[in-house]
Amino acid sequence: MSTPSKKRSPTKCADQQRVVLLLDMDCFYAQCETVRLGLDREIPLALIQWNSALAVSYPARKFVIVRGDSFEKIREKSNGACVCIHLPVTSLNDSTSPTRGQELNANMQSQNDAENGAAMGHLEEDIKASYDAEFNQPAHVRDDMYKREKNKMRSRNEGKACLDRYRLASARIFSLIDETLANNLGRRNYTLERASIDELFIDVTSFCNNPEHDQHEKIDDNDNENGVDFASAEKQFRSTCQNNAMQSLQETNICDENNLHPNDINAEKALVLGCHIARIVRGAVFDELRFTLSAGISTSKLVAKLGATYGKPNGQAVIFPGAVTKVMDETQIKKARMLGGKLGKKVLSLLPENETTMGSVARLLSLDDLIKGVGEEAGRWVFDACRGICTEEVKSTLRVLPKSITAFKSFSSVGYPELEKWTELLASDIVKRVELDTARNNRAPKSCTLGFTTDYGGPWIGKSVRLTFPSDREFDTRVKRLCDNTRKVLTENGVSNVIRLGFSAIDFVARPSKGIESFFAPAPADVKKSPTKTSMGTKNGTCAKQKCQTKKPNGIEAFFSSGKNTARQQDPNHCNNQKCVAADEFTQLSMTGTKINESAIAAPADLVNNSDTLTDEEIARRLHNELNNNSTADMMQPAKEIDRDQTVAMKLQSKYDRENDVLTRVEKYSAGNKRKMVGKTETQKGAAMHKKSKLDSYFLLKK
């Protein structure tokens, strides 16, 4: 997914009819297994987790199989016709393998190495490659996987459920949808919001209300990315979409079509174009990835989501404004968006026993009834929603990253020492996923929460404790630190057994792949530190030429060696055997804090000759001016080809460093006067302290 161009806010056009699409992946988890294993779509399939149906395909629903059915019940209902596939499990044996940490370290290193390329472009390629490796295996490999996994059940004691496969498929589908929209509409003409792992909203109001393009608003011909000219693609799509839109409408289920006048449909040209865009996107996903999607098209997020239910499976439906009342009469309150939980139950409690639809709310409950029953804000929202009115905007989530990464596991009841292996499994999982997120998104968590539950019947997470997320370089070290911290927390809280345990990585901060921070990264293992004392090979009393040649410093060393070390630089063709220090060694010594000969930094001649007669303030002033002049002279040198971060670093060569040098020289040149302080009276010492405070004030003024 590429970075979107600046675009209009399509939902804020008050004079335009909103056009909102809801795309829903059909039976997503079950469909993932159908695509991965290359199965016929008519084969009934149920995805199982710990002997409970997690997802049921549409062919399997013909046998009245529902979520939560056990493996035995599924087999009984379908007379053995329904295939059961268990979702992936991260095994305890895998997590405790001695080589697991090494393998993950290698994988993460390859991810980190890849950061140095174009980050987002690499992310797309990484997702494509990972998807192909998981979902596009050769036919004989798929056949072997199917035989191995068909109707094989797993025990919750084997390990932890892993959803990485489905997250990967979701990311690939979302990426393709974004790419398809950009290639046809142009990036500025749509907003994409991810609603869940298998749903997304798209606002195409701007495009659909102006399909032929406003001549007063010029398309930016420079709107291109990675070699793709989106502006030209947009012009081409605009030229054909009007002719193809009616064909797309014929393939769309029109809700309450019998009660709509043809003129009502013709007047809604923007929604008709929305139908065409939905068909283009669904077709692109199926052609490329073989996944089917259902779509709802209407004037708001609430109604578009209802429309998708009329298009399932593998179809699409449009709800024109004239059909909203009929749709609301048919929609159960608990099926409407945002009303499937406590709010929906409160609304139901306000209605007569047999009235359970959104239309019932519109007919039977006044605004005052709703406000009194569910509160001011919620009451007003429900009053509008049951009439199909929803002003909630589609908010772009293309660059919005998850705020947390979690790994949890439920048990019957377990304590130490058995809990140790489960803690290690969860810690390994969270560290692995954080490493992958860091490699892809250039960020890292500062903290993590340890959540645990000890009693049945209470909240899902009984207690949580915030921990610092380990930042050690080695994978195994991070895992061990999390395990040790978990044991410490549980012990301090007197916890002997838990029924649920997990980690949640939070508080993510940016970690640039390039920039000034990278200069502080540890040196590669093959780079040896320069010794404090140099030992250079000689021949006939002269250093070997290649040993003395000055190396051009780079990175942060470049600005540490700027200005101050000019006196240390030697003629590459000649040097003194006893005092020769190569430039790269000099900067290494500066970085490691090794003491450098102070005479290497020249002081003004008048200061050296007259230091005994000058006050500390005057010494400081002259040294400060000299250093500033040197710094200015360095800045006036001919411009060299340096990167932006190095330029910033040079500008940030701190006043603190220069002032520290001044203070050091003040101590040197006024040393004689300080030795005379021995034996002085308190009054004289007080005068000296007053002089020092004036010196400090001088630097405060400089800042």
UniProtKB/TrEMBL annotation:
Q: Name one GO biological process term.
A: DNA biosynthetic process
Its protein name is UmuC domain-containing protein
Matching InterPro entries? DNA/RNA_pol_sf, DNA_pol_Y-fam_lit_finger_sf, DNA_polymerase_eta, Rev_trsase/Diguanyl_cyclase, UmuC
Q: Which GO terms describe its molecular function?
A: metal ion binding; transferase activity
Pfam families (alphabetical): IMS, POLH-Rev1_HhH
The chain positions of domain UmuC read 20-340
Answer yes or no on keyword Cytoplasm: no
Q: Which organism is it from?
A: Cyclotella atomus
Q: Which PANTHER family match?
A: DNA POLYMERASE ETA
GO CC annotations on file = nucleus
Q: Which UniProt keywords apply?
A: DNA damage, DNA repair, Metal-binding, Nucleus, Transferase
Cellular localization per UniProt: Nucleus
